[in-house]
Amino acid sequence: MLLVEYQNLIPGTIYNTFCFGRPGIYHINCYVLLTPFALKAGVNPWVIGIIIVASANVWTVSYQNTTHIAAMVATGKDAVKQSHAVRMSLAYMIINIIAIVASIPWWKILGLIP
User: Where would you find the membrane-spanning parts of this chain (predicted)?
Assistant: First the structure.
């Protein structure tokens, strides 16, 4: 019964296991891959790190974010429907993009980006 109820978690587990090794390693991989390009462009690595951390924590699909999985299991999927979570995830992504774009002038003042 448990397998049937949470069968949508299996693709995410397989994806995390074979693509990244464990959830969260995505952040490290992106940082390692993007930092040399940022340094070449004169961008402080902190900017890349904060953008990755802020942007990678979305929960558009139920198996994408471990915190979201824990919250859904803890509430028995009664507190929030997945369709509502998807709408909030999309809102989070839009707010995140706006916040990053709004931060660019501040980062320029601080000398973190050219």
Answer: 43-63, 84-107
Locate 28 and state its tokens: 């490290």
59 burial level (CB within 10 Å; 0-12, 13-18, 19+): buried
Domain count, the chain: 1
The pTM of this model reads: 0.69
Task: Per-residue pLDDT tens, the chain, 114 aa: give them.
Answer: 444 444 444 454 444 444 444 556 777 778 888 899 999 999 999 999 899 888 877 777 777 777 777 777 888 777 777 788 889 889 999 999 999 999 999 999 999 999
